[in-house]
Amino acid sequence: MHKIGFYRDGNGDLNIQGIKITSLAEKYGTPLFIYDAGLMKERYNTFFDTIKEVQGNIHYAVKANDALSVISYFAKLGCGADIVSIGEFEKCIAAGMSPQKIIFSGVGKDNHEIEFALKNNILQFNIESEEELNDISTIASRLKLTANVCLRVNPDIAPKTHKKISTGEKETKFGIDFQNVKSIYKKLHQLDFINPVGLGVHIGSQIFDFNFFYRAYLNLKNLADELRLSGYTVPTLDLGGGIGINYDNSSEPDFNNYKKIILNLFKESGYHLSFEPGRSLIAEAGILITKVIRNKKTKEKNFIIVDAAMNNLIRPTLYDAYHKIETVKKISNTEIIADIVGPICETGDFFALDRKISKVNSNDLLAIRTTGAYSSVMRSNYNARKDAIEVMIYNENDFQIRKDEAIKDIISKEEIIVFD
Ligand SMILES: Cc1ncc(COP(=O)(O)O)c(C=O)c1O
Question: Chain-centre distance of CA 224, in angstroms?
Fold first, then answer.
């Protein structure tokens, strides 16, 4: 049995499940995403243990990483899914997940998406406005199909995370204002072909101060208790995702603390719970391998120019996100301060600024850590750059899960119309 996650062997070289990262880079080329199924399973099992004393289901937030093999693996482990587009729904179905385990979240479900999901027997819609409810009700009545509806509540809580991934404040587009929830929940009971299934919250991502979860969940439970006392059925509370993970790989997500909150609030509460973890199940299981193209030195700075770019990993420039970056081969003692940048013609195309890092040469490999979530999934073909290959490591073997995209594949998506 090999260690779980990425580790250094006796020579100081980076490995995964007994396979040298250098050999994977040689086999598949770079840039290359590598995922450790062992770590994904470990995180899933820990999450499962965290909630096993309450009645609950895990719906993996597919937006974190929608690779078909990733979805399929989490489905095999027992997860349902949380999706935000009909494209993600179709990916889940293609990956073998039952539609009866899929929750449709998101503020902008289009009518054709609602219709497709209903016709294909989706478990539930988490809705974010009264307007959306009216659209679902019209479509469900026309199709004579019942829609299970949960109201996503906006608890007006700012969970001290990056503003672009904070979703619980009033000013954001997410959820239904607290004061309107009761009246809309009552309306659910009056509409034909609408089945009320409960209330939900998701206050944001990368949350470390769990008091914010506590407050949001407590408010949600109090609201649900009040509705129950008034005679309404509230079977389920959806608690969203958001557990923070450490991008410096210093410690594991704090599932213990999360468990305390869940047990404190919900043990024997009579609510069925749904959880939508994304990042905490997969972020640490991913790594992006990139080759050094060359060093460039100016009067002001050292630049390490690598063959991955912001089209492969946009988090540093989009969220000011930190990713640990290290050499794949034994770390040398000579260190420099450098910007680690890609070839794209944008100043924002960087992975790290003013970072202390081992001195490297052309063709050396660097590992950008913790890129399992919100990384490859945000890929683009900007600068006509192709997607990175993705590989999953399972039982000490490597499996290619994303094909090598050829530039001709990018070109073939277009029509050439010659205008004169
Ligand atoms: C509705 C909803 N649920 C779950 C998640 C997953 O959050 P995380 O990856 O932080 O666990 C998100 C992420 O933004 C979300 O919008």
Answer: 28
| Residues with active-site annotation | 345
Residues with CB under 6 A from ligand 1: 61, 63-64, 82, 105, 202, 205, 240-243, 276-280
Cβ–Cβ under 8 Å, residues 80 and 60: yes
Three-state SS at 62: helix
> For atom 13 of ligand 1, which residue has the closest CA?
205
Residues 6+ positions from 409 with CB-CB distance below 8 Å:
386
Structural domains of the chain, ranges and CATH numbers in brackets: 6-36+284-411 (2.40.37.10), 39-282 (3.20.20.10)
**Among the atoms of ligand 1, which is closest to the Cα of residue 276?**
4
Please tell me the pTM assigned to this model.
0.96
| Residue ID of nearest Cα to ligand 1 atom 3 | 240
Query: pLDDT (tens digit, 9 = 90+) per residue, 242-273?
Result: 999 999 988 999 999 999 999 999 999 999 99
Tens digit of pLDDT for each residue in 89-135?
999 999 999 999 999 999 999 999 999 999 999 999 999 999 999 99
Ligand 1 atom showing the smallest separation from residue 373 Cα: 9
